[in-house]
Write a structure and sequence with these properties.
Blueprint: E1 5-11, E2 21-25, E3 28-34, E4 40-44, E5 58-60, E6 63-65, E7 72-73, E8 79-81, E9 102-105, E10 108-113, E11 133-141, H1 145-151, H2 158-161, E12 173-182, E13 185-193, E14 214-219, E15 223-229, E16 232-242, E17 245-254, H3 260-285, H4 306-320
Antiparallel strand pairs: 1-10, 2-3, 3-4, 5-6, 6-7, 7-8, 9-10, 11-17, 12-13, 13-14, 14-15, 15-16, 16-17
Length: 321
């Protein structure tokens, strides 16, 4: 995992007001809940006293109570009460567990994975989505999150994996693509055409008006969008569970319908369409080996893999920071 990053881990609706939940994210088992003010808290799901799962406990005054001996943990992972020594007892500083700073907005929950002194105020989000309505589909994949991300950077697979949906038309020849890095945002411009047996694909540097082409965007560490139009976009968060499993949070955003009932109907059918497309990807991606990607692997990449090459290079740079 890339350190010192904000990771999307859940949707807001998944964390209820009165019950802690257990999740596995970024190879860690965590307990998540809302305190009395509704703020999302996230700490390690292992009591520092005797190792019991805190998520099996209950909430008391906005804190999570260990079900074994009643130790009470706050959102910073500190023990605030040890019943056996009484309310006036002195609690050692060592009585604490790892805690993850959280951020909540846009119906999503992020955690900061890294050094607290390096934490930024808030994570990046595609702000143009903020005022659009959406529907969400959550899909578990038996694949490392880097493979899932690379699938959405892959412009070569469309006419083969999606030949009955978005890849129809047999546009197998790939010009470029052009991949532009701006900070931690990767934008890549796509131009797939039908192979007439005579045309040689253009190299990225030969495409001078690339900004007129269709584009997709990825922002580290784990969010992506397909800006189909100003009023219709697709968003995905690739949520790392562990080294071999990922949860994909796929959203359809639209702003062309305002009438509530029609909006709900359209959002529903858009979600069904994207489920079909995503499952076409899943069938193939979960077979890829190794599960996890790196800059140097036993693969023979081609020009059309430019976005994937840029992603791997940049990911490695961020992991070395």
């Amino acid at each position: 995992m890339i350190y010192n990053q904000w990771y999307v881990i859940l949707e807001s609706r998944e964390v209820k007001a009165k019950k802690p939940i257990k999740i596995t994210r970024l190879n860690e088992i965590m307990v998540v809940w809302r305190d009395e003010q509704g703020k999302v808290c996230c700490i390690a799901d292992r009591c520092c006293h005797r190792g019991a799962s805190l998520s099996c406990g209950k909430l008391v005054d906005g804190k999570v109570e260990c079900p074994f001996h009643g130790f009470l943990f706050d959102g910073e992972g500190k023990v605030r009460l040890i019943p056996a020594i009484g309310k006036n007892g002195t609690i050692p500083e060592s009585q604490k567990v790892n805690a993850y700073p959280t951020f909540e907005n846009y119906g999503l929950i992020w955690i900061w994975y890294g050094d607290v002194d390096k934490k930024t105020d808030e994570p990046f989000f595609f702000k143009e989505l903020a005022d659009m309505s959406y529907s969400t589909f959550i899909d578990p994949w038996n694949s490392h999150y880097s493979r899932c991300i690379e699938n959405q950077l892959d412009v070569v697979h469309l006419p083969f994996v999606h030949k009955t949906t978005i890849g129809a038309g047999n546009k197998t020849l790939v010009n470029g693509p052009v991949a532009i890095r701006e900070g931690e945002l990767l934008t890549f411009y796509v131009d797939n055409v039908t192979d007439d047996g005579k045309t040689t694909p253009l190299k990225p540097e030969e495409i001078t008006d690339y900004k007129k082409l269709f584009n997709l965007q990825f922002h580290y560490p784990n969010i992506w969008q397909n800006p189909i139009s100003d009023k219709f976009r697709i968003f995905a968060a690739f949520v790392p569970v562990d080294e071999e499993n990922t949860l994909i949070y796929l959203r359809n955003y639209q702003s062309f319908l305002k009438i509530p009932v029609l909006k709900q109907i359209v959002n529903y059918f858009m979600k069904l369409s994207n489920i079909v497309i995503l499952r076409q990807d899943k069938r193939v991606v979960i077979t890829q080996l190794p599960k996890k990607t790196a800059v140097k692997m036993d693969e023979r990449l081609i020009m059309g893999d430019k976005p994937i090459i840029e992603y791997r290079k940049h990911r490695e740079e961020l992991m070395k920071k």
